[in-house]
């Protein structure tokens, strides 16, 4: 069977999926990951119907970093029979001003993407590492970069510019938005499950360790809470979200912190982790009786509600609200608290449906339909990869 490999590489995990290519379209064959890189490495993979194929643990020193994880995953994938690899699709967080759609990767493209590493230091280096390795090992296998920024590139210029001299915008200093692969999938999924709503005014909340919100009109992004980097917008697991730039100047000029120290603070030690002093995981915060954990949760909910108001203003009203990603899909308490703050927009929660993680959690009389939809970034990457290599081959 001809197949596509989809790779989503992070700092402590490597996710991968294998999709079969058939006349009827893509079929998911394998879903797997190596988690706990450098601490408690564990390779897990299942078939599309959930049957476990492998569940293997490693010594920490055996898979101490991402390249070692890539090598371990590759070694196992090579043992699989019946797959002929056509191409590899990758999630790449930042496409900068140059890439507004998926692109076939060559050395020139790779160098250009590497130039954006300082704009996404948590993600971009890890996204590019498996690409480099695959280019060395299998140079004849096409690779495709799919960007988290691409879905937002149709925004109006007045929405994406900063109030800085024009030269900065021309150099690429502008609002990009992220989580675009997730939002693109949700926009397509809404056409299937709620076709009437899909053409209306929708706010999608991608709430996980990384978090943002997006305003959709007619299935297209018109505004996002994230900007130039993935630090902006909502508070996240270890990132602060919206921050007065004067704070950064103060830390450097008055507190004597170096730019690198400030960068480490904002990417690794801020957000829910920094505010609570307890954890960056929403589940831990909700279970804790520490008042600082409660403060972090309250801050997260408050900022979600405030940003929803901003996006509703950009849309000129709202017809539906979608929760997705880890927290959005699985945390009924957080959904309930956010919906409570959206009551002024006409949102009314059905508590029973919410506790059951139902696909629709609003009441029949709610003016805003509340959806809970699992996202699928990997499927979007597979679709883009297949479309691009098919066009290129033709």
Walkthrough of the structure:
A hairpin with a 4-residue loop joins strand 4 (42-47) and strand 5 (52-57). An eight-stranded mixed sheet has the order 5-4-3-2-1-6-8-7, sandwiched between helices. A five-stranded mixed sheet has the order 11-10-9-12-13, with helices on both faces. With 394 residues, it is of the alpha/beta class. The mean pLDDT is 94. The protein has helices at residues 66-77, 107-114, 124-137, 157-160, 166-170, 180-193, 195-198, 245-253, 259-268, 271-276, 282-287, 291-315, 325-330, 332-341, 351-355, 377-393, and strands spanning 2-9, 14-22, 25-35, 42-47, 52-57, 84-92, 103-104, 143-147, 201-207, 211-217, 220-224, 320-324, 369-372. It starts with a strand and ends with a helix.
Descriptive terms for the model:
394 residues; alpha/beta; 5-stranded mixed β-sheet; globular
Helical fraction equals 25-40%
How large is the share of residues in beta strands?
15-25%
Shape: globular
Provide the gyration radius in Å: 21 Å
Protein structure class: alpha/beta
Order of secondary-structure elements: EEEEEHEEHHEHHHHEEEHHHHHEHHHEH
Beta-strand segment tally: 13
Q: What is the topology, as strand order, of the major beta sheet?
A: 5-4-3-2-1-6-8-7
By DSSP (H or I, 4+ residues per run), the number of helices equals 16
- Low-confidence runs (pLDDT<50, min 5 residues)? none
């Amino acid at each position: 069977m001809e197949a596509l490999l989809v790779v989503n590489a992070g700092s402590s995990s490597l996710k991968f999926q294998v999709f079969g290519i058939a006349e009827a379209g893509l079929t998911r064959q394998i879903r797997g990951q190596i988690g706990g890189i450098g601490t408690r490495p564990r390779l897990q993979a299942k078939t599309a119907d959930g049957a476990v194929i492998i569940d293997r643990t490693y010594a920490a020193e055996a898979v101490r970093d991402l390249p070692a994880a890539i090598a371990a995953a590759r070694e196992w994938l090579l043992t699989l029979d019946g797959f002929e690899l056509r191409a590899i699709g990758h999630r790449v967080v930042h496409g900068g001003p140059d890439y507004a759609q998926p692109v076939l990767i060559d050395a020139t493209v790779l160098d250009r993407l590497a130039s954006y590493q300082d704009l996404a230091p948590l993600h971009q280096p890890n996204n590019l590492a498996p690409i480099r390795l695959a280019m060395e090992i299998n140079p004849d296998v096409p690779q495709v970069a799919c960007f988290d920024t691409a879905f937002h590139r149709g925004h109006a210029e007045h929405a994406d510019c900063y109030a800085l001299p024009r030269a900065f915008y021309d150099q690429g200093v502008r609002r990009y938005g992220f989580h675009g692969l997730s939002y693109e999938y949700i926009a397509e999924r809404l056409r299937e499950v709620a076709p009437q709503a899909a053409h209306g005014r929708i706010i999608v909340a991608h709430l996980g360790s990384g978090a943002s919100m997006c305003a959709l009109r007619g299935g297209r992004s018109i505004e996002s809470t994230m900007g130039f980097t993935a630090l902006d917008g909502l508070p996240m697991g270890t990132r602060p979200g919206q921050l007065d730039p004067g704070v950064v100047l103060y830390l450097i000029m008055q507190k004597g912190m170096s730019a690198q120290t400030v960068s480490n603070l904002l990417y690794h030690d801020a957000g829910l982790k920094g505010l609570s002093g307890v954890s960056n995981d929403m589940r831990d915060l909700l279970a804790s009786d520490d008042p600082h954990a409660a403060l972090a949760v309250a801050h997260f909910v408050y900022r979600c509600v405030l940003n929803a108001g901003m996006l509703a203003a950009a849309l000129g009203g709202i017809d539906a609200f979608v929760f997705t990603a880890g927290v959005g899909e699985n945390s009924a308490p957080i959904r309930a608290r956010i919906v409570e703050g959206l009551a002024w927009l006409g949102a009314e929660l059905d508590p029973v449906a919410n506790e059951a993680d139902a696909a629709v959690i609003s009441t029949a009389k709610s003016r805003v339909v509340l959806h809970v939809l699992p996202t699928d970034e990997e499927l979007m990457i597979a679709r883009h990869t297949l479309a691009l290599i098919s066009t290129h081959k033709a």
